Amino acid sequence: MTWLLAVSVFLAITVLSIVPLAVLAVIHADNLLESLARTRRRARKARERVLPEPVGPPLEKIATDLRRIGSARRETNLGSLGYTILTTQYDKQLANGCRALGLDHRIYDLCGFDLDMERLRVEGALSEAGLVLADSDIEQDVDG
Q: Which residues contact 113 (CB under 8 A, 6 or more apart)?
């Protein structure tokens, strides 16, 4: 008989603890359903979202080209045809780097001394953005 009393007390406690939970579930069911619907909408939008296609060459290629052309440009005689061609290509890669990183530039709008100053400004902005422009900036492997 004592086990029957123990089972009855257990059932009474269980019912008394479940009833408030059921009432809370009924009261907050609307909020729960709205939250679930919102989560499903967000997940669907995330699946449907189309990422923009990159414009221009990859940033790694731009950095490599800038290092290569910059090195060749420094070794070429100032005022020679080769220097002019390399400088034009270097400016093109600087503009590509600015476009890839979302930086402003006026390389195509200027000439002469103003272009030289803009080139220096753009090189500094690209370096600040993390682009390595010179081979000497790359950490060398000491062990070989």
A: none
Euclidean distance between CA atoms 72 and 97, whole angstroms:
18
**Domains in the chain: boundaries:** 2-48, 59-137
Tens-digit pLDDT profile for residues 25-70: 778 878 888 888 999 999 888 888 776 677 788 989 999 999 999 9
Residues with Cβ within 8 Å of 48's Cβ and at least 6 positions away in sequence, in order, are none
Give yes or no for a contact between 47 and 85, defined as CB atoms under 8 angstroms apart: no
Nearest to 56 by CA among 119, 99, 109, 89: 99
Give the CA distances from residue 124 to residues 58, 116, 119, in Å, rounded to whole numbers and listed in that order: 20, 13, 9
Nearest in space to 131 (alpha carbons), one of 91, 89, 93, 97: 97
- The two three-digit tokens of residue 88, written as one number: 């034009």
Whether the predicted model's global pTM rises above the 0.70 cut:
no
What Cα–Cα distance (Å) separates residue 91 from each residue in 29, 36, 45, 77?
A: 62, 53, 40, 17
